[in-house]
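protein under study:
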Amino acid sequence: MWDELTEWASTLAPEKWMVLGAAAAIALAATLFISSPALRRMARRWQLRKRVRSLGDELIENAHIPDGMGGSLRIDYLVRGEQGITVVTLRHYPGVIFAAENMELWVQMLGTGSHKFPNPLPGLRVQVAAVRALIPDVPVQGVLLFTHGSEFPKGKPAEVMTLEELGGHRRARREPGSWPELEHGWERLRLQNH
């Protein structure tokens, strides 16, 4: 069998060897991708970014905005959309979440265990206020985005979304220059982050 294989291989044209080599390289890359945790994380981040981008037509990732006290706030995403600017703050809490607007502590249930964490809405509202202070002529809203299969069986505040809900959004197309205040505000945010 080995002799037959080597004889067959010697009859292949160089172009066919290139095709076979490319196919082997692709198979190796796919195997490495499937088995590499770092590459899987990179793919999840890409998918998350794609979903967040569905809120608008452009985004800034890991934005830094002045906090009004000489420091800055880090914001996961700023998204320019049809309604203005959306501040997106990520929360990675899988499982069942019990949350309400005025609850000081929210609760995450995982299996038989639970974990309490501070209500993240005040932090989101501080971020929204900081962006509004920077671009006062543009509407700014906030979204607290839970990413890892979070469920809210008892309801959730209006500013909270899950990654699954975000998947249903369709990006609105806006004519360039149709909202000059938004364009100027977005440019100011971009310059702030370069």
The beta strands are 58-66, 72-81, 84-91, 95-98, 105-110, 113-118, 140-146, 150-151, 160-162. Helices lie at 2-10, 14-35, 37-53, 121-134, 163-166, 180-192.
